[in-house]
Design brief:
This protein is an alpha/beta fold. Helix content is 36%, strand content 15%. β9 and β10 form a beta hairpin. The protein is elongated, with a radius of gyration of 25 Å.
């Protein structure tokens, strides 16, 4: 689906569930922008506040493209800021801070993802914003949170910091070897942003019921601990795991003719079907596999050679279809190119293409909206905003500033 296209035309009469919800976002990189982009796809009007000269830090990421003015627009920005508007205000300037506080009452949500305490120093924290807008939903996303004590509150945090501290890496790191940092990309960012969306929706519902706003505080470390739930539970139950083995479970990848696929077998009936599919019915009476523990113990010396010999003349798609039809969970290990051509992904509009503005033919691809509602249209997404593209528009519409006032603010460097 290309930017500007929409599907599910019959649902257009219903609008979108967050139509009318307005969000003022002082945001950067991904831990918040991923979430506000999802909220915009659900209908919210998101106005993004950036520095007049540099923009937010995601614009300087690599790889990048050039906007129509020749300014860099980095990949992190490109995949997290569809369907938003951009205004530029220097929030460290006294007049910039004043503008932001004047804007706040025009929005339902004030969102930020600076290090804990950073906006307190600028007098733009929850207390300051709620003083001018008591019903505000004030969203904070930071490494270690603003509410409650933390010995790490002053630490800077990117996704990998929260992932590492949550024990997530110990799940797949063999003993006495170095963990692979951020093995799944910026999971600490996207997961935290998703929890932030849940918090905002809950707070909006709470305001509907009680008429009051509140501070929604998201700690990236808390979110990653929630994601790494099995780690803590197993530890508490005395389970000592060897990350090189899944124990009494087959959960690994195998090679087929054209690449790799994974299988998960954790129950006896699944084991029986696996044995039947690959032509090893004798394993069902083999004492080595009398219990689940034998699956893990003999995964490499017995099971892998047999499975890969059976799959050697089959594609990974054929293999997975055979397993799926027999009720065994399996899936091909796909590359990004294979994902973009996958018929499921296309049918679910999970690839959004934004044409480039720097004479490169291939469009920039961003994942689509995974939240599907039967009474909501799919899209249309709009392209990412150029830096400060909507500054005059928003300040005129919301605060009634005229051309002379805007030019004076720009001359002083308060806006861009």
């Amino acid at each position: 689906m290309r930017v500007g296209e929409t599907t599910n035309e019959q649902a257009q009469n219903y609008g979108k569930p967050l139509d009318g919800v307005r969000i003022l976002a002082v945001e950067q990189m991904q831990a918040l922008p991923f979430g506000t982009q999802l909220l915009s796809r659900l209908g919210a009007d998101v106005v993004k506040v950036e520095h007049p000269k540099f923009g937010e830090s995601g614009r300087s990421s690599q790889p990048a493209m050039s906007d129509p003015q020749g300014r860099q627009v980095g990949a992190t920005f490109l995949r997290n800021n569809l369907s938003k508007r951009s205004i530029t205000i220097d929030i460290k300037h006294p007049r910039g801070r004043e503008l932001l506080l004047q804007l706040a009452p025009h929005f339902d949500v004030f969102a930020e993802n600076f290090k804990a305490g950073a906006l307190t120093k600028l007098a733009l924290d929850y207390d300051a914003v709620s003083a001018v807008h008591p019903q505000v939903i004030y969203l904070s996303v930071s490494g270690f949170g603003n509410l409650g004590d933390s010995p790490y509150q002053n630490w800077p945090a990117y996704a990998g910091v929260a992932e590492s501290m949550s024990s997530l890496y110990s799940w797949s790191t063999p003993n006495n070897t170095a963990p692979t940092i951020s093995p799944l990309g910026a999971l600490g960012d996207t997961v935290s942003a998703t929890f932030a969306v849940i918090g905002v929706l809950a707070a909006l519902r709470h305001r509907d019921l009680h008429g009051i706003g509140q501070h929604v505080d998201i700690s990236m470390l808390d979110c990653m601990v929630a994601l790494a739930d099995v780690q803590l539970q197993y530890e508490s139950m005395g389970v000592v795991r060897d990350p090189q083995s899944r124990g009494a479970l087959i959960l690994t990848s195998f090679k087929a003719a054209n690449g790799w696929f994974m299988i998960q077998v954790g129950r006896e009936h699944q084991w029986e079907r696996l044995c039947e599919i690959i032509g090893k019915p004798e394993w069902l009476s083999d004492p080595r596999f009398a219990t689940r523990a034998g699956w893990g113990e003999h995964q490499e010396d017995v099971i892998r050679p047999a499975v890969e010999a059976w799959a050697a003349d089959k594609s990974k798609q054929e293999v997975c279809a055979l397993f799926a039809n027999a009720g065994v969970a399996a899936g091909p290990c796909n590359s990004p190119a294979e994902v973009m051509e996958d018929p499921h992904i296309k049918a679910h509009n999970m690839v959004v293409e934004m044409p480039r503005t720097d004479y490169v033919a291939n469009p920039v691809v961003t994942p689509g909206n995974p939240v599907k509602l039967s009474k909501m249209t799919e899209g249309p997404d709009t392209r990412v905003p150029w830096l400060g593209e909507h500054t005059y528009e928003v300040l005129t519409a919301e605060l009634g500033l005229d051309e002379t006032e805007l030019e004076e603010l720009q001359t002083k460097g308060v806006i861009g």
